Amino acid sequence: MKRRTIVAFAVMSVIGAVVPVATARAAEIPASPMDFQVSIASGQMGAQPDCDPSPEEIGPKLMGGGTIEMKCTIDETMSDAESGGTVSNPTLAESDDGFNDGVINQTCDMDQELQMVMSIGMGQNKMSKFKGKMFQACAWKMEFTDAESSTLSGTMEMNGVMGSDDGSVADGMVTMTMAMKVYMVDGTGIFEGYTGGGEFTRTESMDMMGGGMGGAPGGPNAGPPQGGQAPSGDTTGPPADGSTGPTGPVQMPKEVLDLCAKNNLNPCDEQSIQKFCQKNMAACSSIMKQSVGSFGKVAAFATLNAVVRKFAEDNAMTMQLKKGAGAVRILSPAAPTGQPKSPAEVTAASKIEIVATEGANCAVKTNRGKTIAAKVISSPELTVLKPKAGAYIGATSIRAVCKIGGASVTSNVVKVKIRK
Prior knowledge:
The chain is mainly beta. The chain has three domains: 191 residues; 79 residues, no CATH class; 91 residues, Immunoglobulin-like (Sandwich). The chain has five helices and 22 strands. The protein has an eight-stranded antiparallel barrel with strand order 1-3-4-5-6-8-9-13. Strands 15, 17, 18, 20, 21 and 22 form a six-stranded mixed beta sheet that branches. The chain has a three-stranded antiparallel beta sheet with strand order 14-16-19, with no helix packed on it. Strand 20 and strand 21 form a beta hairpin. Helix 4 packs across helix 5. The longest helix is centred in the middle third of the chain and has 10 residues. The chain is flat, with a radius of gyration of 26 Å. The N terminus is likely disordered.
C-alpha cells in the first residue's frame, strides 16, 4: 500500500440530532466525560531509535564513570499497522463488570521524524534536545463483554510538531507524551444511538539502555544471552566462564544472589534484575564492572543492545458521548506531516478513506459541489472510495456528506491540491 498522510486536528462535523428510543439498561451513559483506560500491547508499533553511541556501546562506556551524550533519531513511515490491547471503563463497570473486560483493535498509518540528544550517566539523566514532527491516524474498535456485548468504533488522529515539553529522560528511559483527537462514529449495545469525541493522551517509553539480557533484541526471552539462557524465574545460569557445562545450568554467582537478597528481588531472575538495575544503576555498578561478556557475572548489563519501545499501560481516552445520528471522518487524503493546515497533495488516482456510521449513505463532494465518490457504508471500519476520473481537477477541498436515517452529517473538510 502506498504511503499516505492522514488529516488531524480537524474540527468534528455538526451531527444531526436524532433521539434514540430509551431502553432499560444495566449501565447508563453519563452526561459528563468519562475515561476509557487503554493499554496497547507492547512492541507492536513504533520504530526503535538509531542512536550514537548505540545501546550496545553505552553500557561499557558508562563503566568508566561520568556521563555519555547520546544522540538518537527516529524516521519512520508505516501504513496499515495493526495493533491491539485491552480497554476498560471504570464508570460503566460499576453497573456491569463486563466493562472491565474489553479489547481494542486498531489499524493505523504513521509518520514520524524525531531528534533527541540526552546525557545519560549513573543516576544522571538530562534531555537537551527533543523535537520533531508526527502524524498518526487510526481506525479503532472497542468490544466489551457486558450484558449487551457493546462496541464502540471511531478514529484517533494527530498531526503536528513535538517539542521539549513532549519528551523527558530518566534512568535511561525516554518518555514521549502525545495527545490525539478522538472521534466516535458508531456504537452498539449501550452505545447505540451515541456519538462523540474527546482526547487520547498516550505515553510511550523507550529504553535507551536496552531491554534484553545478553544483547538479544526483543526482550529477555528473544534470544540466548552470552553463554546460554536460564529459564525465566530460575535462579540458575551458565558458569561464570561462559561455558554451558556438561550437567546443565549451575547456580547464579554469589554477587548476583547477594544483589537480589539485599534488594528483595524475588524471583531472582533476568527480568527482575534488569528492571531493578535500570532504575538503580549505581547499586549495580559493581556487577557491571565484573567479567565483561559473562552472563554469570551479569555482564549483560554492560552490553545491553535491545532497545525496547512500548506503550505505557492504562493511557486515558476521555470521551464525551451524546445522542446523535452518527458521524463521518475523512482520513485520506490528508495534510503533510507536521503541517495540519496545508493542503493534501493528490493525484488522479488518490483514494479516499473514510470512517463512518454503519449504514450511512455517503458522498464525497468538492468545494464546487461536485460528487467525486459515493458509497453505502457496510461497516464502521476503514472504507476506501475510488474517485471518478478527473475528480480533483479544479478542487481546493473535499468533504463527505452522509445520510443516516433522516439526518445529514458532514465530515471534516480536507484541503487538496493536485501534485505536480
